[in-house]
Amino acid sequence: MTVGRTLLKSLLAAALLAAGLQASQADEWRTTSSLIGESKYGDNFQHYDYVNPNAPKGGTLNSVLLGTFDSFNPYVVQGSPAAGLVAFGGGLLYDTLMEQATDEGSTSHPLIADAYKYPADYSSATYRLDPRAKWHDGQPITVDDVIWSFQVLKANSPQYSRYFENVTEAVAVSDREVEFHFNQKGNRELPKIIGDLAVLPKHWWEGTDANGKKRDVTKPTLEIPLGSAAYKIASFKPGSEIIWQRVPDYWAAKLPVKIGRENFDTRRYTYILDDNAAWLAFTKGGLEDINREYSSRKWATAYNFPAFQAGDVVKKDFQTHAPQAMQGFVLNQRRPLFQDRLVREALTIPFDFESMNRTLFFGFNTRTSSYFQGTELASSGLPQGKELEILEKYRDKLPPELFTQEFKLPVYDSPQAERKYLKQAVDLFAKAGWVIKGGKMVNAKTGAPFRFEILGWNDTDQVIASPYIANLRKIGVDATLRIIDQTQYINRVNNFDFDVVTGIFQQSDSPGNEQRDFWTSKAADAPGSRNLMGIKDPIIDALVDRIIFATDRDDLVAATHALDRILLWNFYVVPQYYRSAVWLAYWDKFGFPDKQPAYVGADIDSWWIDPDKEKALAAKYKGGN
Fold this sequence. Notes:
Layout lengths: L1 H17 L14 E2 L25 E7 L31 E3 L6 E4 L2 E5 L6 E6 L13 H14 L1 H6 L3 E6 L4 E6 L7 H4 L8 H4 L25 E7 L3 E6 L19 E7 L2 H10 L5 E4 L2 H6 L4 H4 L3 E7 L6 E6 L9 H8 L4 H7 L6 E2 L17 H8 L8 H4 L10 H17 L2 E4 L2 E4 L7 E6 L2 H16 L3 E6 L2 H9 L5 E6 L9 H5 L1 H4 L13 H11 L4 H17 L3 E3 L1 E2 L2 E7 L2 E2 L16 E2 L1 H10 L5
Parallel strand pairs: 2-11, 18-19, 18-20
Antiparallel strand pairs: 1-4, 3-4, 5-6, 6-8, 7-8, 9-10, 10-11, 12-23, 13-23, 14-20, 14-21, 15-22, 16-17, 24-25
Helix pairs in contact: 9-13, 11-19, 18-19
């Protein structure tokens, strides 16, 4: 009997180890969670190793945003949420059960929950609340708040709905413990990502406002909500300004994830409608203290204004090792024009990245060639091993080139390249039933022109789109660019009302349940989802499930390679480029640790205001900074 128990225990331990766990980890309370190995901090996590634990508090961080806002409820599709509020996570207002690490991928540390556990079959997860957690009104954060938040967010938030698709219910185990039940076993990621749940105050949302009207969490609102995080809304001007104030008695200020961080007393956001006006606001000071630069042209040529030349504005390059997002022109398959894969491939070829990088981007950028760029999850070469085994099941329904050719985008590296590639595009159009007549690409049967609109909202959209449009016109494709205001743009994208937009698909180094929101058939019909291209493919649906229920890291990598390869060979987007650096220009009023987290590049929350520098700048620029 003893031998039998020992053997059973050994077999269980082996199975758990294959799944990426130690036997002792199953169904035992854990603090830090990670999907890619143990956190570097272990159980003795005091604070992030890059922060200044004695960073001074105080001062104001000024920021500018484009557009406007009309809601303090970011979890519903309607409305434009104010700065500081986010559709996924807690933003500045709400704490989550656990907080995602800034310096390690797929790792979380305690926040509202001080520990969690789950059984060996991943059929549930139990979170234990920190008894110190409280709302800004002093009331404790309770298990009822957690259960209510789960129900509300799953019912009303497009992202949480698909993220927690396999979570059926949350039930109280005790006054400190809440258990989440799953409808399938083997979802290795799910126990950990329950920690991403934003917890909302049930008693506030189910109460009444100053006029005695019952609040409705399913609708936008401009009533300042009750929160729990390090900041609360101090004041606002509808659509134009919002000011956040640091909470002096914030309950979590001494937790490891908070020490040395969230140092600004005030965070002021000013909305500006015009991109050029926002740039001028930064150069003059007072409204924008830190400018995250995305434009290669500006980074190389525009930092010559007086404050920069005087040394009062500094620009710095922060390298990042996080996965790089797939950025590209999304071809909306809800439009019949883009439903043919040959057409989508033909539209990919005229994007001349090399000329753009040389003439517009000063050589700073690299062509994106994977949806999981910069990680071991990116496909390469030809499929082999376990990835090939996965793909073989669907061989007769996949592009045959996927098995015989390495996926490669055109390289415009010579004067002859343009002629060669544009001819390839014309040939692909011909196979799809489109021909050039009178200099126009038209349908061979109906004579209808091939015409579409690229939707954008800022100057960068014009910079990227113009050379692409020019090349398309060389083969008779009538593409145009339409720039609209940001609020209208967001609403149209949320409702998939576009032909083509630039999409940015950010991945982690441990993909899982969020993949449903990117690629699945169900997400294609859900307003606000990230399936912008409208993919409805049962093979991709099956691969997403394969990723979510991967048995171990090797299985996850193989399934993700397969998904990446299918996405690429179906040409759902025209890939653009990435840059493995965060560019920040800032008024020299800050102190910050020399070491910044390489995973995200820079953690602004670890910066602080130097009062002497701030005072000197204010005097020099007459109250500007």
